[in-house]
Write a structure and sequence with these properties.
elongated; about 0% strand; mainly alpha; 6 helices
Length: about 100
């Protein structure tokens, strides 16, 4: 589950009125501070990340900042999934 989705669900859960502990908030802040790539940088790297995935290599280990950003950014994750799907379909298409 991406962090953004988790935070959205947090507000909808049965404990929606419960406050987050200071330790939880501090942990989230530390996590977000380590997300060093912005959407433009990730977009520029998506093709390389997708190619690594297609070749069954560990893209998360090879490109951890891209992986972390995709875990927290729904827009970039949607772009990545669309690109990956297109690359998979292209690789399965019969050659002309």
């Amino acid at each position: 589950m991406r962090l953004k989705d988790w935070l959205t669900q947090l507000g909808r859960g049965k404990h929606a009125d419960a406050e987050l502990s200071d330790a939880t908030i501090a942990g989230l802040i530390r996590y977000l501070e380590n997300c060093e790539m912005d959407c433009d940088q990730v977009f520029d790297a998506l093709d390389q990340y997708a190619e690594i995935e297609i070749h069954k290599e560990d893209a998360a280990r090879l490109m951890p900042l891209v992986h972390d950003h995709l875990e927290t950014c729904t827009d970039c994750c949607d772009e990545y999934e669309a690109l990956l799907e297109a690359l998979i379909k292209a690789s399965e298409a019969p050659e002309a």
